[in-house]
Amino acid sequence: MDEIRDADMVSGKVIQERYLREGMMPHIFCSGCGLGNVLDYVLWAIEKEGLDMEKTVFLSGIGCSSRIPGYIDADALHTTHGRALAFATGVKMTNPDLNVIVFTGDGDCIGIGGNHFINAVRRNLDITVIAVNNYIYGMTGGQVAPTTPVGHIGTTAPYGNIEYPFDMSKMAIAAGATYVARWPVYRPNQPINSIREGLRNRGFSFIEMMSPCTTAYGRRNKLREIKALWDFYMENTVLREDYEMTMKFGSDREKEAVANKIVIGVLHRETKSTLEDRYYEMVRELME
Amino acid sequence: MKVDMERIKKVLGPKKQFIHGDHALCYGALLAGCTFYGGYPITPASEVFEMMARLMPKVGGVCIQMEDEIASMAAIIGASWAGAKSFTATSGPGFSLMQENFGYASMTETPVVIANVQRSGPSTGQPTLSAQGDMMQVRYGSHGDYEIIALAPNTIQETIEHTIKAFNLAEEYRTPVHVMIDGDIGHMREMVTIPHDIELVERKKPKVPPEEYVPFGPGLYGKKKVPEFAVFGTGYKTYVTGLTHNEHGFPATDDQEVHDKLVRRLCEKITDDREKLTDYETREMDDAEVALLSYGMASRSALGALNQARKEGKKVGYFRLKTVWPFPEKAIEELSRQVDKIVVVEMNLGQIYHKVREYSHCEVVLSGKIGGEHHSPNEILAEV
Ligand SMILES: Cc1ncc(C[n+]2csc(CCOP(=O)(O)OP(=O)(O)O)c2C)c(N)n1
User: Fold this and answer.
1) Measured from the CB, is residue A134 less than 6 Å from ligand 1?
2) Is there an atom of ligand 1 within 6 Å of A47 CB?
3) Which of A140, A214, A229 for mutating ligand 1's site (highest number of atoms within 8 Å of CB)?
4) Closest partner residue to B60 among A55, A92, A283, by Cβ?
5) CATH of region A29-287
6) Domain span at B154
């Protein structure tokens, strides 16, 4: 795939005119929020891949992240909390010609929607999921999520979170996703390329975007300034390639330094047939 | 997905058959043009799913097992927006899980059909036995103000016919429609004639170009309170949300007027047609002094009681609701002016009984039976 570079970017104005719903503005996102970046990256990826917006359906659950499809000029189902993937299964199985893109938050995806998530991954429908991980329940004001790191403060963990968090991307890999990538929002090119690859991949593609929530998360965790949150992500992540090299060839000290970091990059690729292909193959045979 | 009626008839087989109530739901669904079933197994509704799993791929439709009933309901709503007539069946515990998305379907005006093969609760209750325990849950189970359409057939033949009717009403009103049977109708077998000359209602699609289309505005060439439905992928770019939305589908969550207008329209599109939707059957009502009022399976016990009472020379009549929701207020009011007493016969501890009382001017008593057994004629006549 031709990697995207800064010079290839069309202007934001073009993206805005081509893809955004004027009637929905102004948007609801706080200043410092990463959701605008995520929306940008997805639209750039769509532009680069030349997706037909009349044949593209966006779905989402409930939460700040799930409000993204509202700003895109396309068919969309803003569904119930945690259930978007179950709705998406109905859409894609009914009309496999539609491109199906799902936006979800960490609480939406693996909190309330955890069972729908692992089962949707297992089925391997050809859909692309953009999971925005802000490590907190943003929309409801900062309660802890199943992703919140141990020791961090949420309104429902005022003395610090004592539960172990989930790693969404690892869950996606374990459940059988065919493409999995994780990127912090401060890197534009890599996520755009991953979203493009996810859109091209015939199968369940999962892109986890680490996105800052200064209002509900940063504020309570000494990461109020957007720069502090971005630095926090920068200090606590390691590229998959670097991680693997360190683990293979590094000294004990170097290994120790990366052992607890969040691994980012393209984390998994595999090829297998999709549910809709297998289903309609069966239909063809039975209808002969 | 195009429906090939000839193929469907071929797949369903001979015109006269001895079939199971659960299977009658499937036959009705196929004949109505259903192309999507999403389900989760539960007694006594599993046979619906198992039959759909056999039939759907043979007619080009989809049948998929979801991870729970929340997901089955979600999947059939998604399927409906992608253009399918979609269907699921369940029983009490699953019906409880579906409530969240029933509300979503009402709010987003999504045509879907749900069959409830009722068993007794609360909770897991009596999985293999019959009850009419969800007659109130179907009406009020989800949060907020909404109206619902629910039909209650009492034979296997009528189960086929009501299922077809449910699909038609779902399309006509853009709303979820429920077929309320119970474990015994679901599991009993009767001779049926598969209807071949069926009138089907198809979804009204917008005729205006996308830039003029108002997805949740007034209907332009059908019912005024039912907007035309633009199937996903047809260029209309509809934003669908369960949040309070304006006519364009955009969230307007803190606007009292928008909410009031939307929710009133959603209710009125059904209640305006209450008379038209009212459907009941009467027997021996001309000289009746006491009416046995029932619906679904309990009406078969009421019929036994009616026959016995008439043999004994008692002036008893029979009044059976075929459509339970929207509630036939006027018909009940008229009935209560005609008789001295109404005995409501139902397999619960009085769900429709209270509704009947609300609109009656005569004495109303309950003959309620639970536990999975049916009323004996004497039990019913004891209330007469
Ligand atoms: C069934 C249900 N339970 C609870 C809520 C309230 N609720 C709305 S958004 C939300 C949390 C969303 O968090 P997340 O998915 O992480 O998304 P974010 O807002 O952080 O993007 C909750 C609990 C709801 N809408 N529905």
Assistant:
1) yes
2) no
3) A140
4) A283
5) 3.40.50.970
6) 5-193
CA of A139 from ligand 1 middle (Å) equals: 6
Beta bridge partners of B343: B292, B365
For residues B189, B191, B193 and B198, what is the CA-based torsion angle, rounded to 10 degrees?
Answer: -30
Residue contact A57–B1, C-beta within 8 A: no
Q: Which residues of B69-98 are buried (b: 16+ CB within 10 A; e: fewer)?
A: bbbbbbbbbbbbbbbbbbbbbbbbbbbbbb
Out of A74, A90, A97, name the one closest to residue B78 (CB).
Answer: A90
> Is residue B248 in a domain?
no
- Total count of domains within chain B: 2
Q: Which of A27, A66, A93 to substitute to test the interface with B, most B CBs within 10 Å?
A: A93
**How much distance in Å is there from the Cα of A145 to the middle of ligand 1?**
10
Residue appearing with tokens 């039976």: B369
The residue from B160, B193, B226 where one domain ends is B193
Residues B285 and B174 in one domain: no
CATH number for position B129: 3.40.50.970
* Domain shared by B175 and B321, yes or no: no
pLDDT tens-digit series, residues B88-110: 999 999 999 999 999 999 999 99
Contact across the interface for B57 and A283, Cβ inside 8 Å: yes
| Encoded tokens for B61 | 């439709």
Residue B189 sits in the same domain as residue B53: yes
B328 found inside a domain = yes
Interacting residues of A270 by C-beta distance below 8 A, sequence separation 6+:
A178
Q: Using the CB atoms, write b or e for A103-124: b if 16+ within 10 Å.
A: bbbbbbbbbbbbbbbbbbbebb
- Site to probe by mutation for ligand 1, drawn from A108, A156, A214 as the one with most ligand atoms within 8 Å of Cβ, is A108
Distance spanning both ends of chain A, measured CA to CA: 39
Chain A contact set for B242 (CB, 8 A): 78-80
The reply to whether ipTM tops 0.95 is yes
B213 domain residue, yes or no: no
Each residue's pLDDT, cut to its tens digit, for chain B (384 residues) gives: 567 899 999 999 999 999 999 999 999 999 999 999 999 999 999 999 999 999 999 999 999 999 999 999 999 999 999 999 999 999 999 999 999 999 999 999 999 999 999 999 999 999 999 999 999 999 999 999 999 999 999 999 999 999 999 999 999 999 999 999 999 999 999 999 999 899 999 999 999 999 999 999 999 999 999 999 999 999 999 999 999 999 999 999 999 999 999 999 999 999 999 999 999 999 999 999 999 999 999 999 999 999 999 999 999 999 999 999 999 999 999 999 999 999 999 999 999 999 999 999 999 999 999 999 999 999 999 999
CATH for B336: 3.40.50.920
Q: Which of B178, B193, B208 is a domain's end point?
A: B193
* pTM confidence score: 0.98
**Whole-number Å distance between alpha carbons of A136 and B187:** 48
- Asked if B127 and B43 count as a contact pair (C-beta separation under 8 A), the reply is yes
The answer as to whether B359 is a domain residue is yes
